Structure formats: structure tokens, C-alpha cells
Amino acid sequence: MISLMTTIWLGIQVGSDAEMTPRIAFAAVPYAYRIGTIDEATGGTIWGQLNVGAENTNDGSFGNVFWIRLQRGRRLLRCNWRNNTVIGQYSFAAGQDNIVTGTHSSVGGGHFNYARGEYSVVAGGGGAAISDSNSATGEKSAIGGGMSNTASGGYSQVGGGSDNRATAWMSSVGAGVGNWAGGQYSRANGGIGSWATGDYSVVGGGSQCGATEYHTTVAGGQLNYADNVYATISGGGHNRARGEYSVIAGGGGDAWADSNSAQGNYSVIGGGYHNYATGDASTIAGGYYHSASQTCATIGGGYRNTSTNFYSTVGGGTYNDATGQYSTIGGGRYNDVVGNRSTIGGGDNNQIETGSDYCTIAGGHDNHISGDYSTIAGGDSNAVWGPSNYAFIGGGRVNRVASGSIYSTIPGGYNNEISGDYSVACGSNNTVVSANNAFVFGDGSEAFGIGMSQTANFLVNNGFRIWTDSLLANAGVRVVGGGTSWISLCDSTSKTNRTRVNGDDVLEKLTAMPIDQWNYKHQADGPKHIGPMAQDFWSAFHLGTDSLGIETIDADGVLFAAVKELAKQVTELRNEVAQLRAQNEHLTKHASR
Prior knowledge:
Helix content is 10%, strand content 25%.
């Protein structure tokens, strides 16, 4: 750019001739000027070659050669054209020591530049030595400027910079240093020492990045390589996208040991460093030192997690291994899922073993499953030992379902163990040994072992209570500690609609009621019982809930009323007998006189 703050003049001198007159002053507004005289020829139009300056060579038809020198201030502002060579027809050269050999080609200026391809262009640049030259050798190639740039592919372009090469058809380098566009339609925008050698490949910038297969892209960063078709790296350092359609969004580090490597086809690494997505369609969102090594394996983040089987997933955490097919670890640390289609939600040091399919550990610490379809909800040091299928532990600590026990359940508590099918143990320090379909509850006051199948067993040293109404604290039945029978609610303050019972009526109905000996149909060979039918009891007294059963409190009440009436009648009979006895003694005494 030339400053116009001071007056600058344009003077023209051809060879050793005197300067032409008049000089023309440069102005801010564009100014058209036509040379009036060249070598005593004035006016008209120049047909054929034009050679302005000294030591120029012009062998091209209709070629033009210029060498320019500018001087400021009061000294002459000279326009000289020197040592340029034009061989191509209809070509143009300006500057110094430039060579134009291609037809319809041009060098706009600079030093030691070459326009050798047909319709090629070098706008300027070059340098003090031939090694600094820009060379446009491809057909319709172009170099905007800079130095030591080469555009050798047809329609190739180098915008500027230094030591850049565009060597393939329609390839281009924007700028930078030492970049190479070597694939057809490839593009290296800038940076340093990068190469786009695959067809349609792109390197956006950065340092020493490579896009080596067709339709590969490296947006920037350092030492990132996209080595397979349609692979993409957005940035970062030392990353490798080696699988077809693989993507690395960024991350990596300052050394190859920090690199992210997306080797599987369609694999993705979002960031972080030292991550390896080697399975097809595998994904690592971020974090570091992860490995997703099978088809559709996924790691969300964290540190040193592995997802090594088909469709396995680790959400995050550290040192988690999802090695079963379709297995999942949500997070936590040191968790291991080997069983297929099994899940650990989180926690610490939990394990689902090989062959334990469809199992779940929700969380907790040091829990272990070996058996299909089994579940541990949480807690510490709980275990389902295999093969124990369909077992469940709700939580607590040191609870165990022994090997071979199916469909057994420990809701929680401490130190409970089941060795049997379909059994339940809860509380603490309880053991169900070789018992199927057993229910055991212990209060922890002592070890409570049950070996009888199809039983419900309770150890409750302070009593057992069943509540039937949550609003009434005493509604239900209970057995006190050490007791052997039920206590029903019978407090007078809990009763209403009280009326006196006619004992004679109760006794009469009870006397008329059939009392049979029988046994239940479902116990045809079982124990015998004595009692009325519920329908007869209902018909006589209308007590209780319905006609299909007799509530013990009503049976007791009827018996109380009947006994009371019998006692009354016995008392009356005793009184009557005593009276009759006294009368008989009196009559006997008088008769003996």
C-alpha cells in the first residue's frame, strides 16, 4: 500500500533512454493514463508483443513483459520491467525473473515465480532465491502469493503462505506453511505441516494434521489423523480416526500416549484422552483411559472404564467393566458385569458373574450375584450364590441366598441366609436351612433356624401384634411376650351400642343348635373338630361379619351368656331344692310325733 500523504510521481523510463515526460502525480481517485510515446512512436494501438524493461525475453505471441521499480519522494518513481520471460501465447509477466510458459497464463509480480500451466496464474510473491519461487504448473492453477508454493494439479489453488502444495485436480491450500492438498477436490485451509491427501478431504488448520482418505476431515488441532473414509476429527491433539465414518470431537493431549483412537467403523469419541473406541458403532463420550471394544459398546465418561461386549454400556465412574452382552453399569467404581443383559446401577465393588443373565444390582457395596434373573437392591456384602435363579435381596448387610435356591427372598436386615426354594427370611440372625416355601422373621435376640418347609415362623420376644385399623392403636389381635394365645380388643371404652343379653334366649338357641363332629374337606384325612355350622350360628344369633365363619369373640360371648344363664338356673334350682329339702324335713319331723 502506498501512502498519499506526500506527493508521489509516476515516471516511465525505457532502457537507457531518458525519462518520458510529463510525470504524472498519483491521486486518491483512480486515474486513467495512456502512454503517449514509446520509442518515438505516438498514439495508436500496439499489436503483437509488448516488452517493457531491460533484459526481458518475450517469445510468446501477444505476450507482455514488465519489470517494475518504485522510488519515493523527489526521486523518480520508476516503472521498470526486467529479466522476465514469457513463452506462452497471450501470456503476461510482471516483476523480476519470473517465467510464464503456459498459454494465457500470467505472473502479476514478485520474484522467481513460474506460471507453466495453461491459464495458470501467480499473483505475486516468491523470494530472493529460486528455491523461494511459486510455481503454478497445473492447467488453470492459481497461486495468490507467498513463497515456495506449488499448484500442480488441474484447477488447483494456493492462496498464500509458504511451502504449500496443491497437487491434485481441484485441490487447494488456503495459506499457512508446509501444507499439502494431494487428493482430488481436497482442501488444506492453513496451519503448518498438514496434508489432505484423500479425495474430497479437508484439513481446516492446526499443525501436522492429516486427512488421508476420501471425504475425511480434520478441523484443526495438532497431529490429528483421519485415516479412513468419511472419518472426522474436530480438534485436539494426537487423535486418530481410523474407522469408516468414525468421529473424534476433540481431546487427546501433548503425546501419543494421550491420544484418542476411534478405530471401529461408525465409532465416536467425544473428548477426553487416551480413549479407544475399537468396536463398530462404539461410543466414548469423554473422560480418560476408556476402552469400548465391541459393536455398539458405550462409555459415558469417568476414568478407566471398559465396555467390551456387544451393546454393553458404562455410564461413568471409575474402573467399571461391562463385559456381558447388553450389560449396563450406571456408575460407581470397581463394578463388574459379566452376565448378559444384566445391570449394576452404581455403588462400589459389585459383581454379576459369568452366566448370570438378566440380573440387577442397584447399588451398595461388595454385593455379588451368581444366578439368572436375580436382584440385589443395595446394601453391603450381600450375595446370591449360584446358580440361584430369581432370588431377591432388598438390602441390609451380609445376607445370603445359598446355591441352588430359586425364587427366594431376603427383604433386608442383617446376617440372614436362605437355603431353600420360594422362602423368605427377614430380620436379623435368621437362617432358613433346607426349607422350601418357608417364611421366617427373627427379632435378632438369638439365632433362629428353621428347617420345616411350608411354614411361617416368627421370633418376637416382646410380643406379636396384628393391626386391623391404622387409626385405632389397639384394633387387632396380639400375643404378649412369652404368651401362647391371642388377645382380642375388649376394652369397654372401645365399645358402643351396648344392650343386655337375654341369657335364657341365648341358652335356648344354643340348646337347639346342632353340634357336630367333622373335619374339613381339604383335610379329609386330617384332624377332627367339634362345633356348630356357621350358617346355624348366623341364623340363631346374626353375629359377626357373615354366615360363612364364626368369629371367636362371638363364639366366646355366646358361651359366656349361656354359661351365665346356666349358672343362674343352677342357682335357682339349688335354692328350690334347698327349700324343698327344708319342707320335707319339717314334714318328716311332724309325722314322726
